[in-house]
Amino acid sequence: MGASAIRMRATHGKCLDEVAKHCVDFATVRAKYHSPAHPPLENTLTMRNQWKPVSFALGSLWVATLTAAVVMSLPDGLRSDAMADQTTPRAGAIDPGQGLNTAQDLSASFRTVAEAMRPSVVSVSSKTSAKAVASRLPPGLRSQLPPGFEKYFEDPSQGGRQMPEREGQGSGVIVREDGYILTNNHVVEDADEVYVELSDDRRLEAEVVGTDPETDLAVLKVEADNLRAIAFGDSDAIQVGDWVLAIGSPFGLDQTVTAGIISGKNRNRRIVNNGNGFEDFLQTDAAINPGNSGGPLVNLRGELVGINTAILSRSGASAGIGFAIPVSLARPVLTSIIEYGQVRRGFLGAQVRDVTPELVEEMGLKVNDGALIQGVLDKQPAANANLQPGDVVVSVDGKKVRSSSQLVNYIASRPPGASVSMVINRDGETLTKTVNLQERTSEAMAMFNGGSVLGAKLEPITPESAQRYGYAGMDSGLIVVSVEDGGIADESGLLAGDVIESAGGNAVSSVTALQAIITEAKRQGIPLRLIIRRGNTRMIVPLQ
């Protein structure tokens, strides 16, 4: 017999002894009142009435003691079930205890973060005077505009209207206590005046330190004391399903907080810089609406993980799919703009594409993920590191590469002159290469943009080609390398050695850009004129 059983039986004995004692006392009293010396009947009845409550109490005590003794004498498993029956709610009842505590804890976390973020979040307002401007809003963002707003982004040179004076509204986040603020480029683009309003109602004029259309980011600067900068988080470490808060001024309602989760990572929607920008969006279902642009997306530690940028919606309002620029992409842009006033990016000198199942089968690749090197430019960083077409980059600086855009974004986030370590797969063999990056400039990118259009072979001008063709000091445009007989270029009078400077009033630096201008002119049925340089002469050439 165990010690617990011994204790239970000892308890049972004490309880039964107490009951027996009370029963003996009751019997003694009863005998006394039935003795010959008992007082008259009236007194006896009175005494009995007085003892009725005592008898009832003693009886109840006896029943309770007996019940406890029976329960305590049961085996452990049965005893637990018997006791549970006395405390567990009946079937169908709800016990909110732990669930309610968890919800209250989460609510308390939301409150704490929202309150802590208030001093770091600002409203941004901009004013642009009436003027004719070309449409530079990315097609993806154009489709998200509320009905009726498209007219403000039409291109006057293509038959649109002149843009009237307008005011814009957005959000921003203080990233340094000395007054630097991060927001979206499209919030302040082309603005003549920019103001920010702080949580303490101070309204300050802001200087646009620099913008980066390729990531849709901009950096502002205000002169003020007692500013609180937000802490930076790790957007690479955040996972799908993690809670986040979006804070900003949707529809002009400042300090609005919405909660949601990370719904996806590494989203590329081709909506930034006409589809030619750097994208690696965090997707969230935290409500993002017009006016949230530029505001912070934070985790439950109050750390900045993204800059709210765009939504996927047919109505212009939140549909539960919002996109934020991750801090891993935004922070290098911020640092470069503050340090140089512009963004300086690394340049690899290689063309890359995604590794797909079709490509694996077609080329007999030995890996299923990564970025395939499709082409390598001579005398550029990739070639200098002995990277070759057909190599697959599987990781860079220890980070796994799953897509070509991921590799391009990472290289662009590194400063010129930086060295990166790449692990590549070459015909099944794993190799490690160190690549010393150069600077990504328009001249460097122009090496990728040659091609044929209008029946002419064109190349973006470079310092070397400009010198070769005798155009000293020219740093932009397309050089006509050769002209096909009977083609549009031939019939329009273009000659080899001509430099196309602009088309339809727009400067051109790539064949892709020229082709887009030609396509749009055809769609609208309007004539297109080129401005070309031939030797020391600039002339107009109407396309036939």
Automatic annotation (TrEMBL):
Q: Name one GO biological process term.
A: proteolysis
Q: Transmembrane region positions?
A: 54-74
Gene Ontology molecular function terms on file: serine-type endopeptidase activity
Q: Which SMART domains match?
A: PDZ
Q: Does the keyword Transmembrane belong to this entry?
A: yes
In which residues is substrate bound?
H186, D216, G291, N292, S293
UniProt KW Ion transport keyword: no
What name has this protein been given in UniProt?
A: Peptidase S1C, Do
Q: Which organism is it from?
A: Rhodopirellula europaea 6C
Q: What is the lineage of its organism?
A: Bacteria, Pseudomonadati, Planctomycetota, Planctomycetia, Pirellulales
